[in-house]
Design a protein that fits this description.
- There is one protein chain.
- The protein has about 675 residues and is an alpha/beta fold.
- Helices cover about 35% and strands about 20% of the residues.
- The model has no long low-confidence stretch (mean pLDDT about 85).
Length: about 675
C-alpha cells in the first residue's frame, strides 16, 4: 500500500517499548478517530498519505474504496491501514492493535482474541480463529473456525462447553471445523481463504404446537432471517440483539400478544416463553418481613421533622467507580472543584496507559483540556475490574471516601449480566468499605420504584420508603438496582457508614446544554423521538409531566451530600421538584421546527406505513411500553431532600424556558429528531 516504508525508528540500546517511529520524507501520517484527528496519547486509526501511497488494489474496487480515500488534509489519497496507534509526546507513532481485533455486536464491545482464547482452552480444539461478518440476510454474526487434525468435532458440544466460559453474546453463532488456519505470505490471517459457513448452529427443529406459537415463529423467524423457526430455537444463538427483540415485541404487541422485552430475554425460546406465560406471574416478594422491619428502621430518619445537626466531613482521597461515564466525568469535575485531594478512578483497561487514554478521551469530550494537568496527579487511574479485582491490592490504604456510580444501565438484557455488575459488585464494594471504615456514597436510581400495579391507590414514594410492592420484574436494571440498594442498606444495618442517592432522569448540563456521548442509547430521548415520529399522543401522554435532572446539577448535589452529613439522614431523592408538562415540551419541539405527524391510531399507522424505518421505530416504542399487566406511574416525593440541600447551601436551578428550548434544539442540531 505504501512504496517502501511509512515510518522509521532507530532502536536504542535499552528500551521499554519500541514505537514504529516518525514518517519518512514526503510522507504524512495521521491518527484519526472517525473524521477527527487524535491528540497526543489518544488511540485512533493510523492513516498515511504522500508520494509513496499506491493508487489502490489491482482489480479489487470495493476494497480499494474502503481503504484508499480522498485525503481531507492534502493532495492525493489517504490510506487507512486498519492499525490502531497513538502519538507519543516525542512525536513518534506507537502501534496498539489491529482495528478489527475489537468489534461491536448487539451493543457490546468484543475482543475477538478473548473468544479464541476460550476456544483454545477446550481439549478438543487445537487452534481457533474468530472473525466478524454478515450472513446472507445482512445480519452481523461471529464466525468461529476450529482446528483438530485428529478427530471430528461435535459443534453443538463445543457450543455447550463455551457457555460457562463466555457471555451469551460472545458465543459464535456460526462454527466450522477446518484443517488449518490459513496464513497469508506476510504472516497474517488470510480471511479470503476461510470457507463460508452456511448453516447456523441451532437446535433440532420443533414445530409450533398451536396457532399462537405458529404466529410467533413467523414473527421471530422473519426478525432473524431464519426459515422454519422452531419453538426450541434460541433467539440469541441465532443472532438476535436488543434491537431485534424490540422489533419482535413491538410487532407481537401490535398483533395482540401480551409479551414484554424482558420476557423474551429471560425466555429465549418460544417453548420457554409459553411455559412462563402459562404460570400467569404477577410479582414476587423481594424482601421478607424481618428485612422489611430492619430497613424501615434504617430509613425512618429521612423525614422533614429530622433536624439533626449537619457536620462537614473531609472528602480526602476518593475512590470513584464509573469515572469514564457521563455521571462519573461530572463527579470528577465537582470533586476537584470541592477540594478533594485525589480521585482514584477504577477503569477496565489493557494497561494503566490505556486507562489514562480512556479517561482523557472522556474528560476531553465533556470539558476539553481543562483537566489534562490533573491526570496522573489528582486524577489517578486504577487498572482493575469491579468484580474480579482485589481492592486491598490495587487501592492505597488511606482512602477516605468511596462514590460508587458504575452500573449496567441498559433497561433490558440478560439478567446475569445486570446482576453481576449491579448487585455482586455493589456487595463487594460495601463489604470493602465496611471492613476498612470508609464512608460510601451509593448512586441508586428512582427506577427502583417507577411503576406499580394499576389497582394500587398510594403511588407516592419517599426517601423513608424502600419496598412498596412496586413492579420490578419487567426491567432487570430496576430489579438489580433495587437488590443492590438492599445490599447497601443491610450493610448499613451492620455498621457501614453510607448514604444512598436515588437519582432521576439525567439530562444535558444546565450550564451549556452539553449532552451525553451515547445519547442515542438514552431511553428517555429515544422514546420522545418515537412519540414525535408517530405523532400519536394518548390523553394520558398529553397530561403527563417530564422530569429533567441536569447532570452538572446532580453531580454537584452528589458531592455536597457526600460532604455534609447528619445523623439518621441516609437516603435522598436527588432531583428537582419541578416537572415539565408534555404540552410545554411540545411547544419547544414546534419552536425548534421539528416535523410532527398527526396520527391517532398507532396500529392503523403501522399497517398503513410501508416505510420499514418508521415501522421499526413504532415497534420499538410499543415494545418499551409493554408490560405484563396494567400499571401506573409512581410519584417521587423529595421534600426531605430539598430541605436538606437547602440547609447545606445547594438548590436546583429553575428549569426555565431557556433550558427546555435549548435541550430540544441541541438534539435538533445533531439531526436526531428527524433521523
Amino acid at each position: 500500500e505504501n512504496t517502501t516504508f511509512t515510518t522509521v525508528y532507530t532502536i536504542p540500546d535499552t528500551f521499554t517499548e519500541i514505537p514504529i517511529g516518525k514518517p519518512v520524507q514526503n510522507t504524512q501520517v495521521y491518527i484519526m478517530n472517525h473524521k477527527a484527528l487524535c491528540g497526543i496519547g489518544m488511540v485512533g486509526e493510523l492513516c498515511t498519505a504522500g508520494d509513496g501511497v499506491a493508487r489502490g488494489y489491482l482489480n479489487q474496487k470495493e476494497l480499494t474504496a474502503q481503504r484508499f480515500i480522498t485525503n481531507p488534509y492534502g493532495k492525493g489519497l489517504l490510506y487507512r491501514t486498519g492499525d490502531m496507534a497513538k502519538w507519543t509526546p516525542d512525536g513518534n507513532v506507537l502501534y496498539c492493535q489491529r482495528a478489527d481485533e475489537q468489534v461491536k455486536l448487539r451493543g457490546y464491545r468484543i475482543e475477538l482474541g478473548e473468544i479464541e482464547t476460550a476456544l483454545r482452552k477446550l481439549d478438543e480444539v487445537t487452534d481457533a480463529v474468530v472473525v466478524f461478518g454478515e450472513n446472507e440476510a445482512g445480519q452481523t454474526h461471529l464466525y468461529a473456525y476450529l482446528v483438530n487434525a485428529e478427530e471430528q468435532l461435535d459443534i453443538m458440544t463445543i457450543r455447550q462447553q463455551l457457555i460457562p466460559l463466555l457471555p451469551t453474546y460472545m458465543i459464535p453463532s456460526y462454527m466450522m471445523q477446518i484443517e488449518a488456519i490459513p496464513i497469508s505470505p506476510n504472516g497474517k490471517l488470510d480471511k479470503k481463504v476461510l470457507p463460508k459457513i452456511a448453516n447456523i448452529c441451532r437446535a433440532e427443529y420443533a414445530a409450533p404446537r398451536n396457532e399462537n406459537e405458529q404466529h410467533l415463529c413467523k414473527i421471530y423467524g422473519e426478525a432473524v432471517g431464519i426459515d422454519r423457526f422452531g419453538i426450541d430455537d434460541n433467539l440469541f444463538e441465532l443472532g438476535a440483539n436488543s434491537l431485534t427483540v424490540m422489533q419482535i415485541v413491538g410487532r407481537s404487541v401490535s398483533e395482540g400478544f401480551q409479551i414484554t422485552i424482558q420476557n423474551v430475554f429471560e425466555h429465549p425460546t418460544i417453548r420457554k416463553l409459553a411455559e412462563y406465560k402459562d404460570k400467569n406471574h404477577r410479582y414476587e416478594e423481594l424482601i421478607n418481613k424481618e428485612e422489611d422491619i430492619q430497613i424501615r428502621e434504617l430509613l425512618k430518619g429521612n423525614v422533614l421533622e429530622n433536624d439533626a445537626p449537619i457536620k462537614e466531613r473531609k472528602l480526602g482521597k476518593v475512590f470513584l467507580t464509573g469515572g469514564t461515564g457521563f455521571m462519573g466525568a461530572h463527579i470528577i469535575s465537582k470533586l476537584l472543584e470541592a477540594g478533594s485531594d485525589t480521585v482514584y478512578c477504577l477503569v477496565r483497561c489493557r494497561s494503566q496507559e490505556h486507562g489514562y487514554e480512556r479517561m482523557k478521551e472522556n474528560l476531553h469530550y465533556y470539558f476539553g483540556g481543562a483537566y489534562d494537568d490533573e491526570l496522573a496527579k489528582r486524577i489517578i487511574v486504577i487498572q482493575g475490574d469491579l468484580i474480579t479485582s482485589d481492592y486491598e491490592e490495587i487501592l492505597p490504604d488511606d482512602i477516605d471516601t468511596i462514590i460508587h456510580t458504575a452500573a449496567h444501565t441498559k433497561h433490558y438484557g440478560f439478567y446475569e449480566e445486570f446482576y453481576n455488575i449491579n448487585v455482586v459488585a455493589t456487595q463487594k464494594i460495601a463489604n470493602y468499605a465496611k471492613a476498612k471504615g470508609i464512608s460510601l456514597t451509593y448512586i441508586s436510581t428512582m427506577s427502583i420504584c417507577a411503576i406499580m400495579d394499576a389497582e394500587v391507590t398510594d403511588t407516592s414514594f419517599s426517601e423513608s420508603e424502600f419496598y412498596k410492592k412496586q413492579i420490578l420484574t419487567d426491567s432487570p436494571y430496576a430489579l438489580t438496582k433495587f437488590l443492590a440498594e438492599k445490599a447497601v442498606l443491610q450493610a448499613m444495618g451492620d455498621g457501614l457508614d453510607a448514604i444512598i442517592l436515588r437519582v432521576g432522569n439525567l439530562t444535558n448540563r444546565y450550564s451549556d446544554l452539553k449532552g451525553a456521548k451515547d445519547y442515542r442509547n438514552n431511553r428517555f430521548i429515544s422514546q420522545m423521538k418515537t412519540l414525535l415520529k408517530a405523532g400519536s399522543f394518548s390523553e394520558e401522554v398529553l397530561q403527563s409531566t417530564l422530569e429533567f435532572s441536569p447532570i452538572d446539577e446532580v453531580a454537584e448535589g452528589v458531592v455536597a451530600l457526600t460532604r455534609f452529613r447528619a445523623e439518621g439522614c441516609n437516603t435522598f431523592h436527588l432531583h428537582s421538584d419541578e416537572y415539565v408538562s408534555f404540552s410545554r415540551f411540545m411547544q419547544a419541539i414546534k419552536k425548534a421546527g421539528v416535523t410532527i405527524k398527526n396520527e391517532v391510531n398507532l396500529t392503523k399507522y403501522i399497517h398503513d406505513n410501508t416505510e420499514e424505518k418508521i415501522r421499526s421505530e413504532i415497534y420499538s416504542f410499543l415494545a418499551a411500553l409493554s408490560y405484563e399487566h396494567a400499571v401506573q406511574g409512581v410519584h417521587s416525593e423529595n421534600a426531605f431532600t430539598l430541605s436538606y440541600l437547602d440547609r447545606i447551601g445547594f438548590e436546583f436551578k429553575t428549569l426555565n424556558d431557556r433550558y427546555i428550548d435549548s435541550w430540544v434544539k441541541y438534539y435538533q442540531k445533531l439531526g436526531y429528531w428527524n433521523e
